[in-house]
Amino acid sequence: MNSRQQNIPIVSSDDNIPSSSNNNNISLSFDCNIHDRVSNSENNSEVTVYDSTCTIGTLSRNIEVEDMHQCYNDDNSSSEAEDDKTVEDDSIDYVEARILTEYFEKLQNHIVKDGKQGPQEYDQKHNTFWIEPPSPFFALYSGPADPKKLYYPRVFLWSPHRLVTTVLKCPNCRQKLNSKGFNTNPRAHRVVDIDSCFYIMSSRYRCTNKSCKTSLNAYDNRILEQLPLHLQAEFPAYLTHRSAVSKHLGDLLRIVMQNGMGVHRLQRALREFHTLRHSRLHLQYLNSLVHRQQYPTFHDIPHGSNPIIYKRFSSFKDPEGYAGYIPSTRYLRLMYTALIDQLRPLMDKELAILDGIILKGDHSFKVPKHMAKLGGLSAFTALYTLCDEYEEIRLQLLVPTKSTTHLEAPLKEMMNSYHLYNHQQPDLFFTDNVKGDRRLLERSLLSLKRTLHTNNNHAHNIQQSTNVDLQKHPVPFLQLPSNVSISLIQSNDQVEQAVQAI
């Protein structure tokens, strides 16, 4: 028997396969010559496609589809190796699949034919940036059975010069930029989404100044910054040099990190989503072949001596087929760091506009233990956090020692923001080292030194009840309620009696 000839079981629901008994079985043979003879066994309701050159067995419907899970097992076996790859290896090994290159070239040629009118996706009839592939059902509905159309990804078409009335300028010499068509190697930029990859097909611009010779892609930050903000918001990805992640995945990455799930678990979840989509398309393709055998069309009937050959659905990572891709954990970690670097000014601004009348500050020694060390020693010994009365973080910084000298400048900057936003000055500060922190707090937070004023009636009542000399003691003493009794406990027996009384 030819080693290429295999029997692939079909897993489907009872709605898709006619059932006249409890053990319906279906099998198909691919990459081999198929006769036009289909046998329906009345004894066990088996449907078997026979081949003249290979032996076809009958496989039960409840058997696992080994071929569909093979790509998942291969991915799992190489997951550790992928995690050990460098970030550079993770991005440089991308080579545009031949099927994708042909698909992108076809799209670009179609757009070029539109001429000055621009892509038809931008017109009032469509009003979209996206070029969507046909749905799997319609892709398999007519013509010969070919899984190639199921490999086509979504394409984001980005030609911003056709969407703005202003002229795009060179970031170096400020001269006009002209469009030079689309990129050709590669033709599109791959972007990893939650369950698949899509591609950005962008225009390329060149400076009209002959001495400048600047050339830019439309997704370059220096181009995006020239666009209106509401147009910038349409761009769907965060880009690195050779790869990218969608904004949806970037948002999910932030949520995952902030809730303690971790990058490694996210990478495993992405692997599950991506391979699950591949498996579902594979199953849909196999079910369409079953339907073609039950209800053959013109393309499913052999003519003369020419056999019918059904193409196999490619594996997940086949570079000449589906070309699936999942980024490594190291790349996701790098992407998260880059996202936070971009958001950090906004996060600092959010902290700066907070106020606080009652502040609480303390050092924590747990976080630095989980940080990388230099020469076996940690660069920081503590994380100082300052919160307001609503437990909102007002100030947070890593310090090399517990000395208060590292806090004086940040505290003064915090008070500058108080003055800038006209916040009420803090009146109270909680600390676990009052004697050691007093001088620092009085120098940095001047409002803590001001005299507490009360209304005259309240001060008069306090003066009468306590007979306090307000000239010597401008701040009245705190008075306990009359129903509170004070007991001095000096022995263990007194402690036990007090506890039993509670």
Automatic annotation (TrEMBL):
Region (Disordered): 1-22
Any single Pfam family the record assigns to this protein: DUF6729
InterPro entries linked: DUF6729
Bilayer-spanning residue ranges: none
All residue ranges annotated as the DUF6729 domain in the record: 117-296
Record's compositionally biased regions (Low complexity): 8-22
Protein name: DUF6729 domain-containing protein
Species of provenance: Circinella minor
